[in-house]
Amino acid sequence: LGRHSLPKHLDPDRFARIALTECRRNPQLLACTPESLVGALMTAAQLGLEPGPLQHCYLIPRWSKKLQSN
Fold first, then answer.
1. Does residue 3 contact residue 35 with C-beta atoms inside 8 Å?
2. Residue 51: C-alpha distances to residues 13, 18, 33, 63, 67 (Å)
3. pLDDT of 17 over the 60 cut
4. What whole-number distance in Å separates Cα of residue 41 and Cα of residue 30?
5. What is the mean pLDDT of residues 12-40?
6. Cα 49 to Cα 42: distance, rounded to the nearest angstrom
7. Pure H helices in the chain
8. Count of CB atoms within 10 A of residue 25's CB?
9. CA-CA distance, 68 to 70, in Å (whole number)?
10. Hey, is 25 helix, strand or coil?
11. Contact residues for 10 (Cβ-Cβ < 8 A; gap 6+)
């Protein structure tokens, strides 16, 4: 995430550390498509929300039938 994607109060390095911490806390996030995970992080950043213990927002992995292999 670049500086232009984040509100002034969110440092890119801090936001990256928060994202990594959330993936460690909930390894199911790593099963999500990269586009989905980055999209959720970008949306949170644009809204000025931080995922994590402060509970500004939650990253919740969801299952999709579209990704089911036959």
1. no
2. 14, 7, 18, 20, 25
3. yes
4. 13
5. 91
6. 10
7. 12-25, 34-47
8. 12
9. 7
10. helix
11. 45, 48, 50
